[in-house]
Amino acid sequence: MEFFIAVVLFIVGIALTVKGADYFINASKWLAMVTKISTVVIGATLIAFASNIPELFVSVFAEMRGAQDLAVANIVGSNIFNIAIAFGIIALIRPKKRDVPMARTNTVLLIITTLLLFALAMSNAISIVSAVFLLLLFVYFIYMNIRHTPAQEEERVKTNKKEIFVNIWLFIIGSVTMVGGSFLIVEYAQVIARSLGLSDMIIGLTIVAIGTSVTELIVSIVALAKHETGMSIGNIVGSNVFNAALIMPIIIFMAGGFQIAASLIWFDLPILLAMCLIMMVPTIITKKSYRWQGCLLVGLYVAYTCMLFVLY
Questions:
Q1: Residue 86 in contact with residue 217, Cβ under 8 Å?
Q2: What's the pTM value of the predicted model, to 2 decimals?
């Protein structure tokens, strides 16, 4: 009975987190329109940050409850899922030419961020200094997006008191809902793991990572349906940079530094790096994405998930 209740509350947690993120994103987009922030900046920064709120809260709650493996595994697993499944689906459904200078810059920055995370992890101890390096890369990512985005000539968006009130409440309700949902995810993921005899690591890399990455997947699919493929990919790239260069340092600061599990260093992080290169290198060189990339990434994710249950 305890297991059944845990599963139900875990699903409720995912639903609350996703719905809260939906409210948060809508309010954030309204704020961006009112302040006339360019759509490129919105896609790479604001929407990417908003869709990463679930990962942030889940990882922070996991660290607060002493589930460090769950916190780190959630970040790595989310990035793997974003690349393999979210980008994989985009490449399968709508491969196309992509010749946007800022998109190429962001993809290079993602590769650098992933390489840096891998190099720091191989030192066997992630320290406060490591967190500072990652944060500096994150600051540079934000700076590059803002600096190289041309200002848009748009009419001033008219607002009224009711619209302002509604969007402020959407922002608050979305934030609170995501906090509550994230707490349920962490709390009952651990209960499920104990009941099944699974480690926090495998739960974080699979169930929790997929649950918190649903937002990115939904945003990407919706953008794809509206023929905003560039925004889809911008969201995926931005989300992965936020995960590795912002959320990871926050966890490091909270813990005061920690040692990453050997399995993450020699299996999960190399898989993440390989998927990142499969996603980025052909696109950077040819300025196009291909269906074979999508097929390969989705296939690798299925094989990777199966291997997790063997290794862990």
A1: yes
A2: 0.83
